[in-house]
Amino acid sequence: MKSFKIAYRNLLRMKRRTFLTASLIAVGVVFVLLFVSFSGSFKNYMISQITDSMLGHIQIHKKGYVSSLDSLPLDKNLKAKIVKKITEKLQSMPEVVSFSKRLKFGAMISNFTTSTNVRLNGIYPKQEMKTLPLLKNRIKGRVDLKPGEIIIPELIAKGMKLKIGDTVVLVATNAKGSMNAKTLKIAGIVGILSGPGGKDGYIHIQDARELLRADKGEINEIIIRTKNISQVDATTLKLKKWIKTIAKPKLEVHSWKKLTPFINIAKMIDLMSISIQIVLISLVLISILNVMIMSVYERIKEIGTLKAIGTPKSFIVSMFVNEGILLAILGAIIGTALTFVLILLVGDVRFSFGRQDNLLLTPQITVYDVMFVWILVICISIVASIYPSIKAANLKPVEALRS
Amino acid sequence: MVILKNVYKSYKTGEVVTEVIKGLNLEIKQGEFVAIIGPSGSGKSTILNMIGGLDTPSKGDIFVDNQDIAKLSDAELSKFRAKKLGFIFQDFNLIPVFTVRENIKFVLDVIKHSNEDIEHLLQEIGILEHIDKFPDQLSGGQKQRVAVARALVGKPKLILADEPTANLDSKSAQKVIEIMKKMQKEFNTTFIFSTHDTRLTSEVSRILELEDGKIVRDIKK
Ligand SMILES: Nc1ncnc2c1ncn2[C@@H]1O[C@H](COP(=O)(O)OP(=O)(O)OP(=O)(O)O)[C@@H](O)[C@H]1O
Ligand SMILES: [Mg+2]
User: Fold this and answer.
1) Min CA distance, B43 vs chain A (Å)?
2) Which one of A34, A205, B122, B172 is CB 3.0 to 4.6 Å from B168, fit for a cystine?
3) Residue nearest to atom 28 of ligand 1 (CA)
4) How deeply is B132 buried, as exposed, middle or buried, from its count of CB atoms within 10 A (0-12, 13-18, 19+)?
5) Which residues of A, range 71-110, sit inside 8 Å of B by Cβ?
6) What is chain B's Cα-based Rg?
7) Residue B65 region by backbone torsions, left for phi larger than 0, else alpha for psi between -120 and 50, else beta
8) Beta-carbon neighbour count of residue A125 at 10 Å?
9) Would you tell me how many other CB atoms lie within 10 Å of the CB of residue A365?
């Protein structure tokens, strides 16, 4: 522990240099922590928006449905018999909290003067709200949809100047090509979300089946909520295996990751986070290496003296490595403190993403983030100071003393 | 205590090889107080460094306390120096971030002794009042006395001092030599020191005069 004493006293002796180097490390730490906290909460926010108010965690369809989702086909519907089978399976799985059946289709919506295309989900309202706990936050008006009512997407409400309580007419073509119409009352308006399904409206499943003249129990999508979003991959795999045992019709299972383009943004965020960490690593590596080389160079005579006294090499190595570690810790402390101050000052951030405005981001730093950065910085400081330290320990005493 | 047998030392600078020590034979007994004198460049430092195992001869053998030091590994040599040798340098070489007490204590830590009476030693050397000062708060003479204490505290058999008084005024120099002499008497330590200053040789028991890598005079008193 004597080597710690020498290390920290030397850092104290070189106050200005110590401060400058520690500040440099601190800047790196601030960048990483700020980025991690903002990007992390952005990612989590977006993922929870997407999964908890739109996609659910996992979806089941007839094979080929997802790839032709744009045209909302009706020839890939699931009949009552298979739906029952899936329902029984899902009810038997403890990791499945809830699931909801949907009949998705495209229709024309008219306010008696103008009309436009609309994508709709025929839903069982109770199941849907349970499977998508955040959906109600996106809806203005009533969320407990009843037969004869419709929740229209915000864009259409604006475009057609519709408000809650107005009446609209839906016109849809069914799988056999015959048309049908239905008059519905607007119960609510649902806000927009980026990605597929983000501009969909909702009607009661009964109305959807009537409009499309679909069979009883016919649907084309099942969305599933797992206990914990981290179980998604395992549960998806389990369902995929189970589905293979069903000969006909062929089904497909997708986790939310396969269903939203946001996953690419999430991956990009992770990549950026790694890049910023690499910048931090280089910053720490270079600044500590630089300081330690200087420190060794300035103290060659001291090293020679220590060697003449018979100080073991390991002591000389640890003396310099400790100096590097202390410097890193100092930088990490300053950086972490600075980050907390900055986050307190900035506070919550409102931002827009795509068509979504006024999203609220609460930056958060977890103990794990801080620990990760600290361990990273300390490890790199050891790596950076080990070379100059070993060089110092292996100096020839005569040469060191002569300098 | 110290035996040099036919020791040569040459330095190679580029293509040029300079022979600095040219066949040195020498025996120094336990408890001797030896001064090595000679003009600049005659090889005084080189000899002291080789005896201390800080440098290696090109040819010949050096025995210190019956140990052929060429046969020791790097780590063994470190231990050997820590246990048996003390060094005093021309420019003191105290550890600047350690106080006087810590500088001396450090040597004890290296040899894993802890019960030596540092304060008593400093008292005898006359710098007890400065025990908690840092080296840069001391005068040259005081620093060198700390260095003497540091060399002595582990009770080594041999102390090597390369021009210990060169950076001191003559009064301080006299004082340091007196202390060295006193300690030599008290602990029967062998002292070998080099100096330019012939006035400092009055106390010594033996003077080796070096010229051009050879002993030209060996005066025992
Ligand atoms: N590393 C080295 N490379 C080349 N020559 C060296 C080296 N070290 C010492 N010498 C040469 O060896 C000779 C003896 O040097 P040394 O330092 O032993 O002399 P000295 O008697 O101690 O001199 P001074 O009284 O000036 O300290 C000198 O000529 C010096 O130039
Ligand atoms: Mg010399």
Assistant:
1) 14
2) B172
3) B41
4) exposed
5) none
6) 17
7) left
8) 22
9) 19
Taking residue A37's Cβ as centre, other Cβ atoms within 10 Å add up to 21
pLDDT tens by residue, chain B, 221 residues: 899 999 999 998 889 999 999 999 999 999 999 999 999 999 999 999 999 999 999 999 999 999 999 999 999 999 999 999 999 999 999 999 999 999 999 999 998 887 778 999 899 888 999 999 999 999 998 999 999 999 989 889 999 999 998 888 888 888 888 888 888 888 899 999 999 887 778 888 999 999 988 999 999 88
Omega into A147 within 30° of 0, i.e. cis?
no
CA distance B217 to chain A (A): 27
Q: Identify which of A2, A151, A175 has the alpha carbon closest to the alpha carbon of residue A77.
A: A175
Tokens of A30: 């601030």
At residue B45's C-alpha, the angle toward residues B39 and B50, to 5°, is 140
- Please list every residue in chain B whose beta carbon sits closer than 8 Å to the beta carbon of residue A5: 97-98, 102
The count of C-alpha atoms lying within 13 angstroms of the C-alpha of A8, restricted to the half-sphere facing its C-beta, is: 7
d(CA A390, CA A394): 6
Sign of CA dihedral A351, A136, A182, A69: positive
* Rounded to 5°, angle at Cα A68 from A62 and A71: 120
Q: How far apart are CA A127 and CA A360, in angstroms?
A: 27
**Beta carbons of B26 and B209 less than 8 angstroms apart:** no
Structure tokens at A94: 């403890």
Tokens standing for residue B115: 């019960």
Tell me the two tokens of residue A142.
């009533």
* Distance from residue A191's CA to the centre of ligand 1 (Å): 87
Report how far residue A68's alpha carbon sits from residue A73's, in angstroms, rounded to the nearest whole number. 7
Which single residue is written with the structure tokens 């420019």? B91
CA–CA distance, B159 with B151 (Å, rounded to integer): 7
